[in-house]
Amino acid sequence: MSAPGRRSPARGLALALALLAGAAASARAATEVEARLSAGSIEAGGTVSLLVTVTDPRGKVADPQFTLPAGLELLGSSRAQDFSWVNGRSTNVVTLRFEIGAVRAGRYSVGPIRIQVGGQLYRSGELALRVSEPRPAGGRFTGSRRDARAVAALVLSLDPPNPVVGQACLLRMRLVQRVNLTEDAQTATPATPGFWSESWGEAVSYRAREANTEVGVVERALRLYPLAPGPALISPAHALVTPASGGLLDPLSGFVDSRIEIRSDSLRVAVRPLPAGAPAGFGGGVGEFEVAWRTDRSHTTQDQAITASLDVRGVGNLPLLRAPDYRAADFEVFATSVEDSLPTPGTLGPGRRSFVWTLLPRRAGRLRLPGPAMSWFEPRGSRYVRHVPAALAVEVLSAQAGPAGEGADGFPNALAARPSRPGTRAAFPPLALAGGLLVWAAFEFRRRGKAPDPGAGDRARLREWLRSIGLVHGPDFWRAADDAAEWFERRGESVARLRESIAEARFAGRTGREEEVRRQLVERLGAAMPAPPSRWPWQAAAAACVVLAFALFVLALPAPGPRAPAERAAAADRLARSDDLAGAEAEWARLWDESAGDPALAARLAWGALQRDDVAAATVWALRGDTREARDGALAAIARRVRDAGGLVGAPGRALPLRSWEWAMLAFLAAAVAGAIRERRFLSRALIALAVVAGLWWPAESAWRAGQRLAVVRTSQPLPPGDITLEPGQVVRVRARAGGQVTVRAASDLEGTLPERAFWFPGSR
């Protein structure tokens, strides 16, 4: 069963607004203004929309001015703004909508409509509207005598049935088909006076059961919002249906019109008022919303405006939300625009409405941008909600001469304070790490040189035996001799002959043998005496490690480049100060080709590109300058200007923004301290691990950043196959590059292919 067709409403009168005498022809060509009615005729009690569309306005769009004749009344208004990109051209459309209700039948003229756009006044002619009497109630026949209810029925319902003022509702119109129809039904939608309505959704067909019979249902829905409390009446809907030839037996079916007109009952709605106690600044919002407050960037200059947007998302009466009254002490607030992204017609899904302000800072510094207070009513909890977003931090740089601005000669003070020194060698943290490990080794050698003597006990014992054996006689001598022999035996030496000599001399009564035994014992004890350890090699090794460690540390520190390139860079700076920017850029570029890597030189090339309004080239130089050293003052200042101009969007950041010499110092000191506290093993090992990370982080990150496959967008263009637009200066990641084509990823899930000429590649000089 196909969906029923909608009866074409009378086409609304559309008149292009004519510019008053004296307006320039170029202005007329740039801005297009049109006013029209959504329908040329309606029934009494119905509504019609007056739409005023301004395309590519050159300035602020004021509210239209017009009067309504007696018999018509203004029910509500809204403003929406839409940006689009078609065939390489951006289009900005501001749509102002006014809902007009018809009180009684007659012929009316709406207008003329006057609207001021950017200082120019536009005026339309009068728009004709015919209001007819409502159709009489009750279904009728044009051929068949059967009851129309046996063929089909129209049913209207509202969800929720008893809404509060402003609550989003869904009006459903169901055509219940009880017999087969020869063609799609022609329907006339009901009038909804007292409601702000949108477009009807697409027809949906499905099967249902009515009592015990299966019927076909064609359903359409309309999203609408009650505008005032009290009773409201939705007029009946009408439809023309034609039963199939087998559906009704009528001998005259071939000679008379067999179409049947049916109508629904009118729908009475009791609109409840909003409860008392609305918070200050309540803007009429009704629904379940979430609010987000953001700016387009966090850095700007004092003479450059930013945009701040309040995004309201959720399910509710988004088209009726009014922009909050907003003021900021440190910013001058300009006109407010509105951007809508509403759910599909005929549904109550989530949508978005954004209020956008243009703000100009009043002073320099780190300013706080307060969030606008937003209030709404939640029908589910029957309560008012007031939300104030957290303030945002905005860093505003001075536009005057000073540390963040330009000098009297127009040259940025940030560049003047940081001269370029091409050829300067960065620090090399791995050498510093090696030096720190040598300090750790020096502590270890010194500790070993002071280690306890393992033979000190044996030497003391042997000296005592030598003294006893050499001085005593008789039993004391033989006791000392036995102890010495036992000690030799414990050492694993053969003492059998020694013990025999001791026994013969002791028990044979031969005193001459005592001296012989004494001599043997003295010789053997003297030979067994351990020599004291030699400590000077450890001390010498420790001293050598210290000397070598500090030599490596000195070599690891940054070294200035040759004097000649620095003098050439200073001469190029003087050219820039004397308004010869082209000559200065040429010399800076030559210096970069000869010795790339100096961040201050890259900052100068980025600034030169900004002076030519080439945001893409400025982004390329900012990326190249940030490949090695971090936190360069000149490059950081110019990079902020590049971001303010829209560049560096999507550029990768640094996880740990330390400079090369800071990494070198950290690696050296961590390893040296680890050697000094080696007894505290856990802490010492942790410091060694930190030293290794610090020593290897900078070269690893520099290699990684230099090897990143990045591209910078040169001009605005869509990224196929989606509808995202890449802007100049945006940084994307290269996925593949072959045959003059480049596949890039602009976000985590946005990928497309464009020609190589659409990008700059920072990795190439």
What is the tally of beta strands?
A: 39
Poorly predicted regions are 1-29, 137-146, 246-256
- CATH architecture descriptor name of the domain at 140-271: Sandwich
The best one-word shape is elongated
| Class per helix and strand makeup | alpha+beta
Summarize the structure in words:
- The strands form 10 sheets. This protein has a 6-stranded mixed β-sheet, with no helix packed on it.
- It is of the alpha+beta class.
- It is built from 15 helices and 39 strands.
- The longest helix has 26 residues, at 681-706.
- It is elongated, with a radius of gyration of 46 Å.
- Among the domains are: 5-132, Sandwich (Immunoglobulin-like), CATH 2.60.40.10; 140-271, Immunoglobulin-like (Sandwich); 285-397, Sandwich (Immunoglobulin-like), CATH 2.60.40; 456-528, no CATH class; 709-765, SH3 type barrels (Roll), CATH 2.30.30.
- The two termini are 66 Å apart.
- Mean pLDDT is 81; it is low at 1-29, 137-146 and 246-256.
Overview in brief:
This protein is an alpha+beta fold and 765 residues long. Among the domains are: 5-132, Immunoglobulin-like; 140-271, Sandwich (Immunoglobulin-like), CATH 2.60.40; 285-397, Immunoglobulin-like, CATH 2.60.40; 456-528, no CATH class; 709-765, Roll (SH3 type barrels), CATH 2.30.30.40.
Map the helices and strands.
Blueprint: E1 5-6, E2 14-16, E3 18-19, H1 25-30, E4 32-37, E5 41-43, E6 47-55, E7 72-86, E8 89-102, E9 106-110, E10 114-117, E11 120-123, E12 127-132, E13 140-141, E14 152-159, E15 169-177, E16 186-188, E17 195-200, E18 204-210, E19 213-226, E20 230-234, E21 238-241, E22 260-263, E23 267-271, E24 285-295, E25 299-301, E26 306-316, E27 331-341, E28 351-361, E29 365-369, E30 374-378, E31 383-387, E32 392-397, H2 413-416, H3 429-449, H4 456-471, H5 475-490, H6 496-507, H7 512-528, H8 536-556, H9 563-577, H10 581-594, H11 599-611, H12 615-625, H13 633-644, H14 660-676, H15 681-706, E33 710-713, E34 717-718, E35 725-726, E36 731-738, E37 741-747, E38 750-755, E39 759-760
Parallel strand pairs: 1-16, 5-12, 24-30, 25-32
Antiparallel strand pairs: 2-4, 3-11, 4-6, 6-8, 7-8, 9-12, 10-11, 13-22, 14-15, 15-19, 16-21, 17-19, 18-19, 20-23, 21-22, 24-26, 26-28, 27-28, 29-32, 30-31, 33-36, 33-39, 34-35, 36-37, 37-38
Helix pairs in contact: 3-8, 3-14, 3-15, 4-5, 4-7, 5-6, 6-7, 9-10, 10-11, 11-12, 11-13, 12-13, 14-15
